[in-house]
């Protein structure tokens, strides 16, 4: 057997075995999901807006256009649910930092100062970011009635050149 | 010279079995929690935001079984050419995903060894760990190649 034929044989074996392993994994994954009682659908919609629904069935998300109108009318308080470091790097103009991960530390300094009747819009960054969602549900539990989530807020706000505060500004 | 060759062979054999068993452990361990909680792992896959939405659940259902199957092949020392090549490809993919998400700065869970969204956030350490496993996998794939080449040529001692 020559070196090149040995190499060729090795790659043929590699390919054949890899395909076999993948097919076996697909068969096992499919079969087990069909059999188990807590299986998941093979295809799901996965939209963040679908997930942003309260227990009462109200939708929590607010479109950027509506949020921008409320901002222009000074009719809503924007709450930045990201970390203080991310907030310092840039945030929506006038937004209050209320980091979800350390929300307990901000209870007296921030939450107690908020008007429960006011309109609040929480945001973080990235469509999958759940900080703003968690913060909105938390505020609702505390009795704040008018709370909305601006999904992917920071990115969208910047993309539309809406007013921001940055360290340079 | 034969003694030198012999010690080289011993080193190759030890390296082969060491990397094989480490990667078997890594893949089998990584698969368990994801197989137990497909719903949570699907959320972790979705959070990466790199797949079309219709592929999220399918990936969450198949990937852990791929890890378990190839981990088992590595453990029982069968189909090593295919299993080691797949291990290297998967690790390269995971390293790529980690770099991509670190660069984007998304605050998401790794979903590497645990399916739960709050565990295992992606950090620079995740990248170092994955790169180490990638080096192990590539080394193993190379050693499998040497082993197979020697087996097909006469007078080979490496088993």
What's the layout of helices and strands?
The complex is a heterodimer of chains A (169) and B (159).
Chain A: H1 3-35, H2 48-51, H3 64-72, E1 77-80, H4 84-89, E2 91-92, E3 96-97, E4 119-123, H5 131-142, E5 146-150, H6 153-159, E6 164-165
Parallel strand pairs in A: 1-3, 1-4, 4-5
Antiparallel strand pairs in A: 2-6
Chain B: H1 2-36, H2 38-48, H3 53-76, H4 80-104, H5 124-152
Helix pairs in contact in B: 1-3, 1-5, 2-3, 3-4, 4-5
Keyword list:
heterodimer, A: 169 residues, alpha/beta, Oxidized Rhodanese, domain 1, 2 domains, four-stranded parallel β-sheet, two-stranded antiparallel ribbon, 6 strands, B: 159 residues, mainly alpha, elongated
Quick gist of this model?
By secondary structure, chain A is an alpha/beta fold.
* Overall morphology of chain A: elongated
What's the total helix number of chain A? Answer: 6
**Cα shape of chain B:** elongated
- Poorly predicted runs of chain A are none
Oligomer: heterodimer
Characterise this structure:
The complex is a heterodimer of chains A (169) and B (159). Chain A is of the alpha/beta class and 169 residues long. Chain A has six helices and six strands. Chain A has a four-stranded parallel sheet with strand order 3-1-4-5, sandwiched between helices. Chain A has two domains: 1-44, no CATH class; 48-165, Oxidized Rhodanese, domain 1 (3-Layer(aba) Sandwich), CATH 3.40.250. The termini of chain A are far apart. Chain B is mainly alpha-helical. Chain B has one domain (2-152). In chain B, helix 1 (2-36) packs across helix 5 and helix 2 packs across helix 3 (53-76). Chain A binds chain B through residues 1, 3, 6-7, 9-10, 13-22, 24-26, 28-30, 32-33, 38-47, 82, 124-131, and chain B through 35, 38-39, 42, 46-47, 49, 53-54, 56-58, 60-62, 64-66, 68-70, 73, 79, 81-83, 85-86, 104-108, 117, 145, 148-149, 152-153.
């Amino acid at each position: 057997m020559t070196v090149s034929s040995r190499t060729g044989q090795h790659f043929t074996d590699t390919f054949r075995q890899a395909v076999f392993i993948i097919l076996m994994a697909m068969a096992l994954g499919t079969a087990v999901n069909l059999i188990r009682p807590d299986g998941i659908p093979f295809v799901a919609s996965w939209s963040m807006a679908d997930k942003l629904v309260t227990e009462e069935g109200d939708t929590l998300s607010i479109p950027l256009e509506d949020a921008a109108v409320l901002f222009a009318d000074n009719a809503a308080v924007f709450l930045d649910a990201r970390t203080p470091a991310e907030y310092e790097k840039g945030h929506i103009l006038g937004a209050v930092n209320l980091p979800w991960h350390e929300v307990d530390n901000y209870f007296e300094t921030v939450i107690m100062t908020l008007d429960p009747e006011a309109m609040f819009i929480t945001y973080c960054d990235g469509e999958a970011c759940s900080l703003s969602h968690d913060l909105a549900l938390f505020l609702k539990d505390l009795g704040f009635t008018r709370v909305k989530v601006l999904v992917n807020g920071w990115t969208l706000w910047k993309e539309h050149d809406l007013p921001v505060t940055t360290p340079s500004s | 010279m034969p003694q030198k060759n012999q010690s080289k062979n011993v080193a190759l054999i030890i390296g082969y079995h060491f990397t094989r068993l480490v990667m078997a452990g890594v893949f089998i361990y990584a698969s368990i929690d994801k197989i137990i909680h497909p719903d949570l792992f699907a959320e972790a896959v979705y959070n990466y935001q790199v797949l079309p939405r219709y592929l999220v659940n399918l990936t969450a259902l198949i990937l852990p079984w791929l890890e378990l199957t190839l981990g088992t092949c590595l453990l029982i020392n069968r189909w090593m050419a295919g299993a080691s090549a797949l291990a290297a490809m998967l690790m390269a993919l995971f390293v790529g995903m980690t770099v991509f998400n670190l660069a984007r700065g998304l605050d998401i869970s790794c979903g590497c060894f645990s399916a739960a969204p709050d565990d295992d956030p992606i950090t620079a350490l995740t990248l170092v760990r994955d790169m180490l496993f990638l080096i192990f996998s590539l080394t193993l794939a190379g050693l499998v190649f040497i082993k197979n080449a020697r087996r097909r040529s006469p007078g080979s001692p490496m088993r």
